[in-house]
Write a structure and sequence with these properties.
Radius of gyration: 20 Å
Oligomer: single chain
Number of helices: 16
Shape: globular
Structural class: alpha/beta
Distance between the termini: 29 Å
Largest sheet: 6 strands, mixed
Strand content: 15-25%
Number of strands: 11
Strand order of the largest sheet: 1-3-2-4-11-5
């Protein structure tokens, strides 16, 4: 679950995306991405050694020299949490190693310019949101989406169950709403329903005011703030923004177009291992959660478990079960692009066929 102050900073950074040149060099930031000190070939403390992982089955025949694993970097756009569990599982289980990849996972934080890092070749792969990808492409960034882990966006509005709201339209009829108005989904809700009947206040990243005020509602990720509020004895009821028609893919794996052209098999290998890792994580998140918990001590074990369970239906949707984990459709990207143009986030949508040339 995102920490309160960090989540606030993250949302502010995202809200200001349209004002920041996508191809600008990385600037100083409050939380820099740092390697976790281990590669895909290493084993976490307390786990079985790497030789005991499924990667051993990919070992070359005796007498045949092993090809060196390709070292690649993956930049997360947030700190280690269940929303990235499949990537850590792919490393810990040997899925990356089996594909000949030695993956270093860089933890993210507030203001980390993942798209710029990928486009500039500082890292090979990164995690982004679909709306950010479209904005970057529209400005000429050399990035391509490969797959999307979250088929349904976790962005939601949280209110009190006692208010009896049946949807976001009811929430916006009265009371107070804490929201970052500069974000695309907020602009979408404002255009659809209007904010004239609700008192809009800045979102502070926490749940303290929500717990104390029964007429208070706020933006949230259903994998984060509702869990925190419930543990404090509150009665959160959540409504997904996706249900209102604004549903960008989240946890989108991106790479630079140049890498796709130069080494498409490496990109395919990363995508295959990522899917394998996510299948394993969804089956049993225990191992990856333990690794991430050591890297993100602000989240306790109970919250890791709760968040992993809350996100499952957002990843394993009927469409994902039919087309495979991470599947993306041209229609979804076209719809989002049109919405961003309509909201004034984009002046002109990028060509979707060019965008999806590396979709795997």
């Amino acid at each position: 679950m995102h920490s309160t102050d960090s989540r606030r900073l993250f949302l502010q950074a995202l809200a200001s995306l349209v004002a920041v040149p996508v191809l600008a060099p990385a600037c100083s930031r409050s939380s820099s991405p740092e390697g976790d000190g281990r590669s895909s070939a290493a084993s976490p403390a307390g786990s079985a050694p790497a030789a005991a992982t499924p990667a051993a089955s990919a070992a070359p025949a005796q007498g045949t020299p092993a090809a060196p694993a390709a070292k690649v970097k993956l930049a997360l756009n947030w700190v280690p949490e269940p929303e990235f569990g499949g990537f850590y599982e792919a490393r810990e289980s040997g899925a990356f190693a089996k594909e000949g990849l030695d993956v270093e996972i860089l933890g993210g934080g507030a203001g980390v310019p993942v798209v710029q890092m990928v486009a500039g070749g500082q890292v090979d792969f990164g995690i982004s949101g679909a709306d950010e990808v479209l904005t970057a492409r529209a400005r000429g960034a050399d990035v391509l989406p490969l797959l999307a882990v979250f088929q349904t966006s976790p962005q939601a509005i949280m209110t009190h169950e006692g208010r009896g709201a049946k949807g976001i339209a009811d929430v916006l009829k009265s009371g107070t709403l804490a929201i970052e108005p500069g974000l695309p989904y907020a602009a979408y809700l404002k255009k659809k329903y209007g904010f004239d009947k609700v008192k809009v206040v800045p979102y502070d990243g926490g749940v303290a005011r929500f717990v104390a005020d029964k007429d208070f509602s706020q933006q949230c990720f259903i994998t984060a703030e509702p869990i925190a509020a419930r543990r404090k004895g509150s009665d959160p009821a959540t409504f997904l923004v996706a249900s209102e028609g604004f549903n960008p893919y989240v946890v989108v794996v991106i790479t630079r177009a140049a890498l796709w052209k130069e080494n498409p098999e490496r990109v395919r290998a990363f995508a295959r291992a990522t899917r394998e890792g996510w299948r394993a994580y969804l089956h049993d998140p225990t191992r990856a959660n333990a690794v991430m918990a050591k890297l993100n001590t602000s989240m306790d074990a109970e919250t890791f478990v709760a968040a992993a369970e809350a996100q499952r239906p957002l990843i394993e949707t009927p469409e994902a079960k039919e087309k495979g984990l991470g599947a993306m459709t041209r229609e979804r990207w076209e719809t989002l692009a049109k919405q961003l143009v309509d909201l004034g986030v984009l002046q002109k949508a990028p060509t979707i066929d060019d965008l999806l040339v590396a979709a795997l």
